[in-house]
Amino acid sequence: MWIKTVDFANFALRRSGMADLSGATAMEYALIGTGIGVALIATMFAIGDEMTEMFQMIQTTFAASTN
Q: What is the DSSP letter of 55?
């Protein structure tokens, strides 16, 4: 009895397209991409001031050497 019920449920899911897992894979990739993006933004905010200071030092060094 249970085997027939399980077979019917599997058949119904395959026929309706709900057994297709490709959408779940796409969602996982989207979550991974979002996590990487958040990590990059957090890193940029964390080291942003140091990068600005470094580029200002390079600019003043080049400006002093050209005069």
A: H
